[in-house]
């Protein structure tokens, strides 16, 4: 018999913008299901901690970006999270890849991802990064310092020139935290427009027959919850393009506006849709080009978090509940080794108990990890039932970006597996890191 509690309903938090994938609904026995699979069942089957990725949500977000900017290239920033399945999904959705290491590049290549749809970034590209990029024939290499120009040119096999862009610093502060704000003067990325470094680099590249300068790139930062900084940045970059045309007689055909588009980390937080970002960026580009009498360059955007964050849910099991100093702590079997974001940026998350019903009143509980640091806090003062006990499963939505990709080997707990859900089925994408993996690397005595 179907009772009210077994009819799946959208989660109360599922107001736009949501922190959950669109497929998240309540399930039997106090559970939540994602992609048609109950989360507690996934915790049981794959163990905890485990990261669940809703394939349909990833694909839908990628498709939303393509619809938002149909005349632009959408390039997924692989640093947010990459595995072979992600490479395939991006390929199938018609999205390119932004990589920043030979490792990310090799992974994409291992799936036959078209190299001409790959952009290589990095403020310190290693010889291996550059060699791999040239060998595989990546579409664009983004120059981030003057000294890499001659180094790169010397290795281009020819006869064709390597297409490059210059990452310029538009001098705009934006981003959810100072550690992920990259568009202002005085940090390690890019070449300053105002300070003249960008123009010096352009002149140098134009003098290198093995390099073809196709455009300019900016990346303002990450978790930028408004489209306005992009509009200002685009205008500054277009103004600089006009200066290049006037001084060097070269009209650059491409402009890459970078990534950094915000998602809601907590229910109701502001996060413009891809369509809203796209409209504003396009509008700024059209206006600036009219103002400076330039033809419209081909636009690229590089969303990372915006494609994958809300598709991911982290599952942990409670190991201990402790009341101390007037606070309640729930300690789980993961922590800063799988999610360093709260410790690094003060990132906040919402947490929900799944897998059993509870009629107990809610109380403020701080969810902490198992690592040897007082700062190993996953979520400060979140509402959880008073009867929360060891063995319960906690779900943390909006966990798809920069968690697994930044996971560490701290305390040799082993990095968690990643499981895809789609159409009521689950499959393992990345297995759990085991003690054998650690021991295998430990080769000296
Ligand atoms: C060059 C570049 N492009 C794109 C991104 C993607 O950023 P986000 O995941 O915030 O969209 C980053 C990371 O911030 C980046 O450094
Ligand atoms: N790792 C950061 C974002 C940095 C993006 C990379 N350029 C975060 O978790 O928010």
From TrEMBL:
Record's keyword terms, sorted: Amino-acid biosynthesis, Decarboxylase, Lyase, Lysine biosynthesis, Pyridoxal phosphate
Modified residues annotated as N6-(pyridoxal phosphate)lysine in this record: 79
Residues reported in the UniProt entry to bind substrate: 305, 341, 345, 373, 402
Spans traversing the lipid bilayer: none
The keyword Amino-acid biosynthesis appears for this protein: yes
Gene Ontology terms describing biological process: lysine biosynthetic process via diaminopimelate
Annotated positions binding pyridoxal 5'-phosphate: 260, 302-305, 402
Matches recorded under InterPro entries: Ala_racemase/Decarboxylase_C (IPR009006), DAP_deCOOHase_LysA (IPR002986), De-COase2_N (IPR022644), De-COase2_pyr-phos_BS (IPR022653), Orn/DAP/Arg_de-COase (IPR000183), PLP-binding_barrel (IPR029066)
Keyword Phosphoprotein tagged: no
Cofactor(s) named in the record: pyridoxal 5'-phosphate
Superkingdom of origin organism: Bacteria
Domain named Orn/DAP/Arg decarboxylase 2 N-terminal: residues: 56-309
CDD domains: PLPDE_III_DapDC
UniProt cross-references to Pfam families, sorted A to Z: Orn_Arg_deC_N (PF02784)
Active-site residues (renumbered): 372
Pathway field: Amino-acid biosynthesis; L-lysine biosynthesis via DAP pathway; L-lysine from DL-2,6-diaminopimelate: step 1/1
Enzyme Commission number(s) of this protein: 4.1.1.20
GO MF term list: diaminopimelate decarboxylase activity; pyridoxal phosphate binding
Reaction catalysed by this enzyme: meso-2,6-diaminopimelate + H(+) = L-lysine + CO2
NCBIfam families, per database record: lysA
Function: Specifically catalyzes the decarboxylation of meso-diaminopimelate (meso-DAP) to L-lysine.
Recorded family membership: Belongs to the Orn/Lys/Arg decarboxylase class-II family. LysA subfamily.
Subunit structure: Homodimer.
Protein name according to UniProt: Diaminopimelate decarboxylase
The species this protein was found in: Streptomyces inusitatus
Gene name linked to the record: lysA
């Amino acid at each position: 018999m179907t009772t009210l509690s077994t009819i799946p309903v959208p989660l109360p938090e599922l107001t736009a913008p949501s922190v959950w994938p669109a497929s998240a609904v309540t399930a039997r026995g106090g559970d939540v299901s994602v992609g048609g699979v109950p989360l507690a069942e996934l915790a049981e089957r794959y163990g905890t901690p485990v990261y669940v990725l809703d394939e349909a949500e990833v694909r839908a977000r990628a498709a939303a970006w393509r619809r938002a900017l149909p005349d632009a290239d959408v390039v997924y920033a692989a640093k947010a999270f990459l595995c072979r399945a992600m490479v395939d999904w991006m390929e199938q959705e018609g999205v390119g890849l932004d990589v920043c290491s030979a490792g990310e590049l090799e992974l994409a290549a291992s799936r036959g991802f078209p190299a001409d749809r790959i952009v290589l970034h990095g403020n310190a590209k290693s010889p291996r990064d550059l060699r791999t990029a040239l060998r595989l024939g990546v579409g664009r290499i983004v120059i981030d310092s003057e000294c890499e120009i001659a180094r790169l040119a010397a290795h281009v096999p020819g006869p064709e020139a390597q297409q490059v862009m210059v990452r310029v610093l538009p001098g705009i502060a934006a981003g959810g935290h100072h550690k992920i704000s990259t568009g202002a003067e005085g940090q390690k990325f890019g070449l300053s427009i105002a300070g003249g470094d960008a123009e010096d680099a352009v002149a140098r590249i134009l003098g290198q027959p093995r390099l073809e300068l196709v455009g300019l790139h900016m990346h303002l930062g990450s978790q930028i919850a408004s489209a306005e900084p992009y509009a200002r940045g685009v205008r500054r970059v277009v103004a600089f393009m006009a200066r290049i045309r006037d001084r060097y007689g070269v009209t650059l055909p491409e402009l890459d506006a970078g990534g950094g588009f915000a998602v809601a980390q907590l229910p109701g937080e502001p996060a413009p849709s891809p369509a809203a970002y796209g409209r504003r960026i396009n509008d700024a580009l059209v206006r600036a080009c009219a103002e400076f009498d330039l033809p419209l360059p081909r636009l690229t955007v590089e969303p990372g978090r915006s494609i994958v964050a809300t598709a991911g849910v982290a599952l942990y099991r409670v190991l201990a509940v402790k009341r101390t100093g007037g606070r309640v702590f729930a300690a789980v079997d993961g922590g800063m080794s799988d999610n360093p974001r709260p410790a690094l940026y003060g990132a906040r998350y919402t947490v929900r108990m799944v897998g059993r019903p509870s009629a107990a009143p809610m109380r403020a509980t701080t969810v902490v990890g198992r690592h040897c640091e007082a700062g190993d806090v996953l979520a400060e003062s979140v509402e959880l039932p008073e009867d929360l006990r060891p063995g319960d499963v906690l779900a943390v939505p909006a966990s798809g970006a920069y968690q697994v990709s930044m996971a560490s080997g701290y305390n040799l707990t082993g990095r968690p597996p990643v499981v895809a859900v789609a159409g009521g089925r689950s499959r393992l994408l990345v297995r759990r890191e085991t003690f054998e993996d650690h021991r295998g690397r430990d080769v000296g005595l």
